[in-house]
Write a structure and sequence with these properties.
0% of the residues lie in helices and 54% in strands. The protein folds into 2 domains: 3-118, Metal Binding Protein, Guanine Nucleotide Exchange Factor, Chain A (Beta Complex); 130-240, Beta Complex (Metal Binding Protein, Guanine Nucleotide Exchange Factor, Chain A), CATH 2.170.150.40. An 8-stranded antiparallel beta sheet has the order 1-2-5-6-10-9-8-7, with no helix packed on it. The protein is mostly beta strands. The protein has no helices and 23 strands.
Length: 250
């Protein structure tokens, strides 16, 4: 990969074949995608206009970015339907490489593939890594002085840029304190998480426990284990209280 710093936007080439589908039709198919960090947390795919199979119909709307310039909004039209405003083209971008590329709204497409495997939520950052390690550390989770879980057989998930996450066997969690939640979240590295809230002393703390029942392959070792937001509970590791990390979930 080559790395180009242009202002606050990083652009890199990827060697993966990338395809997107909408309405049962192939929208784009390329082996020359670009990863563009519009935000620092994860990249977006920008794909060659020459690889687009669908019709891109200008809407007349524009969106301006301080770094990328004026983007022209397009509908994505296929025989199977229209994805309104789902494509953005920067024809006169100050970043020259972007001028012949198009960015499709990830969630507007029905399916994305890297090579022959589906991806979810957004493209995976090549600089992020997920490691899940078995551990014999003793982990205790408490809230308002009440122990919620205690285990000597955690799986610790280390993900670049995030605090360690301690996944615990369900048999080590106090189920009598858990309350079902309809919340789900989606991660491109781990899959779909479902949640519980916790009730302690008559107060409900929403969505502070999650579980990946069928995680993606790289995170299989946390399947069926429960994890608590260490930002919102008291976490003891080998008897030592851990400082609550500062993250978007604090």
């Amino acid at each position: 990969m080559d790395n180009e710093q242009r202002g606050r936007v990083r652009v890199e080439h990827s060697a993966k074949r990338v395809r997107a589908y909408f309405g049962g039709e192939l929208v784009v198919d390329t082996t020359a995608p670009r990863l563009v960090w519009e935000v620092p947390y994860y990249p977006a795919y920008y794909l060659p206009l020459s690889a687009v199979r669908a019709e891109l119909k200008p809407t007349g709307e524009t969106r301006r970015s301080p770094s990328r310039g004026e983007g022209l909004v397009h509908d994505v039209v296929t025989p199977g339907g229209t994805a309104g405003g789902a494509a953005l083209v920067y024809r006169d971008s100050p970043i020259e490489e972007l001028r012949d590329l198009v960015r499709f709204e990830f969630a507007a497409m029905d399916e994305w593939l890297e090579e022959d495997e589906p991806i979810y939520v957004h493209p995976r950052d090549p600089y992020k890594r997920v490691d899940v390690l078995a551990s014999s550390r003793h982990v205790r989770v408490a809230l308002d002085g009440v122990t919620l879980a205690a285990s000597a057989q955690p799986r610790i998930l280390f993900e670049t840029g995030l605090p360690p996450r301690y996944y615990l066997p369900l048999s080590d969690v106090r189920f009598d304190l858990l309350r079902p939640s309809d919340t789900q979240t989606h991660c491109p590295y781990k899959g779909t998480a479902t949640y519980w809230s916790v009730e302690v002393g008559g107060k409900v703390h929403d969505d502070i426990v999650w579980i990946y029942r069928a995680p993606l392959p790289e995170s299989q070792k946390v399947a069926g284990l429960a994890c608590f937001y260490s930002e919102r509970v008291d976490l003891f590791v080998d008897g030592e209280l851990q400082e609550r990390p500062k993250t978007p979930w604090s």
